[in-house]
Amino acid sequence: MVGSFRAELIKLNKRPATWLLLGIALVLGALFAYVIPYLGATTGTAGPTADRGLAATLPANVVGNTLGGYPVFLGALLVVLGVLFVGGEYGWGAWKTVLTQGPSRSTVLAGKFGVLAVAALGFVLAIFAMGSLASVLIAAAENQSMAFPSAFDILRGIGAGWLIATMWTAFGAVLGILLRGVALAVGLGLVWMLAVQNLISALAAPLLPWVDSAQRGLPGPGAGALVAALGAPSGTPGVDSLMGGGPAALVVGAYLVGFVALGTVVLRRRDIL
């Protein structure tokens, strides 16, 4: 297990796509959570929400701001990471090469899921660091308070972000295993993230009460409810207080366990070819 983990960690670090996805996540997070709200609050037409827009970019709100992208946009990037890391092994025949050396399928896959969890934590910490730096710069420029949330709130936010990010990478990994490749898995994953779950929440749920109830059991709305409970801006796509933070965390955690179990069962029982 340790050997597989180390090998997979080296592979992940050497893939340019890993760092490209992280760079895209940082740029998107900075742009939509800080740059655009700040410019709107300082250069836009004065109105009742101008002060609120500036306040949302200050260090006191860094936890909610950095979590707001995980239900949809940042989550989609993590799904792509999971697909590339696991599904890409089929195209190059890496599965056959590794498994003929002796490790069991479960051991190799456990190493991959472990590395994906570490990568997800790295994404969360990097985005939180970016948000902290951006909020401090804005506070300094506008002569505002630089007070951060309590250490407990910060750790709780990082933990919630890690849970959601790991769940999305596991979702991508399972798609790669089920579809034995990258292209179709990435396509279907992005369609679900950017289209289907938003259509369910925005169109079907308001019209059909049973859909409104059922969506609380989906991973996207669960992630959105979890970050909403921790202060993510309500206008952010995918963020909605459908349930409390505790039930939402249980939904996300259940999907994480389910994705790992499904991927393990399918990989063990199905031919690699």
Automatic annotation (TrEMBL):
Transmembrane segments: 20-39, 72-92, 113-140, 160-179, 186-208, 248-267
This protein's UniProt keywords: Membrane, Transmembrane, Transmembrane helix
One Pfam family linked to the record: ABC2_membrane_4
Protein name, entry field: ABC-type transport system involved in multi-copper enzyme maturation permease subunit
Organism: Asanoa ferruginea
Lineage of source species: Bacteria, Bacillati, Actinomycetota, Actinomycetes, Micromonosporales
